[in-house]
Write a structure and sequence with these properties.
GO biological process, one term: cell wall organization
Radius of gyration: 37 Å
Domain Penicillin-binding protein transpeptidase: 268-573
CATH superfamily of the largest domain: DD-peptidase/beta-lactamase superfamily
Distance between the termini: 155 Å
Number of strands: 23
CATH topology of the largest domain: Beta-lactamase
Number of helices: 19
Keywords: Membrane
Region (Disordered): 288-309
CATH class of the largest domain: Alpha Beta
Oligomer: single chain
GO molecular function: penicillin binding
Helix content: 25-40%
Length: 598
Amino acid sequence: MRSLRLPRGRRLLALVAIFAVAILFVIRLADVQLVSASALNADARDKRAVPVTIPSVRGDIVDRNDSVLASTDELYDVQLSPKNTRINGGKFYRQEVGGGIGTVEVTNAEAYAEIGEITGQSADEIAEIVDDALAADPDSDFAYVTRSVDLTQLNRLKELMIPWLTFESHHERSFPNGAVAGNLIGFSGYGEEPQSGVELSQDACLTGKDGQEEYERSEDGVPLPGSVVVTEQAEDGGDVKLSIDRDLNWQAQQIINEQVEDVAAEWGYLVIMDVKTGELVAVAEDGSVDPNDVSGSDPAKRESRSFVSPYEPGSTFKAVTAAALIDQGLADPTTQQLTPGQWEPEPGVRFGDAVAHGEERWTLNGIMVNSSNVGISMLGDRMDSGTLHDYITKFGIGESTQAGMPLEDSGMLFPADQWDRQTSYNIRFGQGVSSTIVQTAGIYQAIANGGERVPPTLVESCTQPDGTVTKPDHGDPVQAISGETAGTMMQVLESVANESWVKDHVSIPGYRIAGKTGTAEQSDGQGGYRSDYVSSFAGIFPADDPQYVAVASVAFPANPENGGLAATAAFRQAAEATIRTFHIPPSTGKYDPLPVNY
């Protein structure tokens, strides 16, 4: 029999070939498992892993007592893969719903009906979503079923175990108190994009950092159970605390809305400020926007007008001129001034008092009580314009406040060397200059606080999830007038509240009140003045131990005579609400009148 063994040379050659192939396999295996493992794994993961953003939660906005003013609700979008509904002839198998044993066959029609029972859609509506998507693109892998379902609906949908149904969370801003402080909080668009107010100005604090996760899916696009891996944790946003008291702000809004409506005025503002700290405890405006229903509000009233809409303050500004005269030693409350009803200090410059009268023998205190434009200008003539300008700026007019809003107007104050002759007189009684109502409150805060103006505060702090607290810089306190001058001015302003026409309108039993009225013409936008007025009252209470300032302004009522009544009523009601809210004790001591006439 013939031997089957190969010649020795051929056997050697075969062994070499086998050995060479083995070496190649070893090299390739080493490359796959060691050298190129990371790259190959990443490539494979990229082909099967689906990245998903983990949205961070936007921080809350709270009031001084931590009552929530704005928060974030987590909602969920329901989506499906149209092309995958066609797999297996439009049916799939799942474990029996409710934890039963075994699997059941589910058709698309049955799945559509189950989904619709939870989302409020009909099976036909969901089928139409699928059909329309596939008609536009036979390989369509995405279509929305519905958006913004809540957690209960989400969990019910997940229990259906429908393989081509997926979910994505998103956050939606909610404002549990409606229009309360809506003018301050602001509002956001879809996706929590801030549009105005604190939502916009404090966005850096409120916004967190989104995280990332991945899940793997099968060849047909179905997510694989247990494959979710978090690659980057989400970091939630911080909470912003405001100085306002939610309930007091609500009361202030009710007060100013009622007064504006009662006298058919165009608008009204009401601000309450803490004398010692400058904290704004209420900032109310008529028709405040409801952040839950922005489109339902007047577009002209969606911003915080108390910060961005300055107006000529009128006679409330006389307190600045009087304080400057006293602080300069140029007058005191008993300084005498024979005061006519009209005055023409130089050719082409003429003005008068609101009520016609002959020559009156008034003191500086009497001029303030009777709110005489002529009297304050005649005494103000003792002081040069530059000096008055310096006092006005120390009282905070002409520079923007930094309370924490996106925009805060500076008011209008031209340099003294740009005042024309008429303006140089008019500014002494609050015309030819403008301020926001927050700035006006700051004037009276300074007088009530021993002459030191503390910049107004709306945003108190930002607290991060780790407990880190940061406080914004609102500016440095300014000594506007001396403590002695401030004490004297408090006597004058208490005299105004007790001796002028307002005494029966602003008095509160048991509490001493100090303050000043204001009735101001406003620009008509065409180089002249309107025929109606903005009426204001700026008050301090209690006068013997100043705790709070409240300023109310009511603009252009149908009957101009009603503006002052509305403003004083708003002040009194706001003061009473503040006394109740902060449990302010009654006054001690008694009012000591100053001479009005000589």
